[in-house]
Design brief:
The chain has 237 residues and is mostly helical. 70% of the residues lie in helices and 7% in strands. Strands 1-4 form a two-stranded parallel ribbon. It has a two-stranded antiparallel sheet with strand order 2-3.
């Protein structure tokens, strides 16, 4: 069975500029969602869906979008560009967390609306907790991209829904287990809550992965039509 994909399409002129602009918008959306997750992930909430309750970090509200974006980039722009976005997200997160740490180290003015104690309560994250988030992110995103292209070759560019789900779900399960495990180790979460949060996280992320499939089809379909791409064909920028 031939597992090769069509040659990448090379654009020029206005089409290339438009394709590059689309890539930058997707990359910006990815970085924005990721940085947001890293700033808010310590707050947990309960979401009741028809009797099915999920207890999870509010970071989950934005984090699934990062996998949706990398799947769209992987499908249209290729594995190399998807990995570039993953690395850029890591750099952006580290810079943001460094700036937050520096801000926390500056003594607030007496008239400041936010005191040092309030700032530290919200943004005071232990180094290991942040490391847990970053380690899980890096592993999960690279696995997501790798799995996506594995299934893309196996299906010869067909069945987008299959590679979208079979790349996102395993990588998000790994991400959940890594983050929760390390947060329990550093004392951010009590160990008895690990099982419940793990099951809730897996169910929630599996549901989101299934629900975002139509959005992936819409985005990929629009880009394919605009740039005249065949099944499985990618753009080369």
């Amino acid at each position: 069975m031939n597992l090769t994909l069509p040659d990448a399409k090379i654009l020029s002129g206005r089409d290339r500029d438009l394709a590059l602009g689309g890539f930058l918008v997707l990359a910006g959306l990815f970085v924005a969602c990721l940085v947001t997750c890293n700033l808010v992930f310590r707050k947990f909430f309960t979401w009741d869906m028809g009797g099915l309750a999920f207890e999870q970090s509010v970071g989950l509200l934005a984090y699934p979008l990062t996998f949706l974006v990398t799947d769209v980039i992987s499908e249209v722009y290729g594995k190399k560009k998807a990995n570039m976005v993953v690395v850029s997200g890591l750099v952006a997160s580290l810079v943001t967390l460094t700036m937050v740490t520096m801000a926390g180290g500056v003594t607030s003015a007496g008239w400041s609306p936010v005191s040092d104690a309030e700032f530290d309560h919200v943004f005071g994250q232990t180094g290991l907790a942040v490391g847990a988030s970053m380690a899980a992110y890096l592993v999960a995103q690279f696995i997501d991209v790798r799995f996506f292209h594995f299934w893309k070759r196996r299906t010869q560019g067909r069945h987008l829904w299959l590679r979208n789900n079979l790349s996102t779900i395993p990588s998000q399960i790994l991400d959940t287990a890594t983050v929760l495990g390390l947060l329990c180790v550093v004392g951010e979460i009590e160990w008895p809550r690990f099982g419940t949060l793990m099951v809730n996280g897996v169910l929630f992320k599996t549901l989101v992965a299934a629900l975002d499939t139509p959005l992936v089809y819409l985005a990929v379909g629009a880009l394919r039509r605009r740039f005249g791409l065949g099944p499985g064909q990618e753009l080369e920028l």
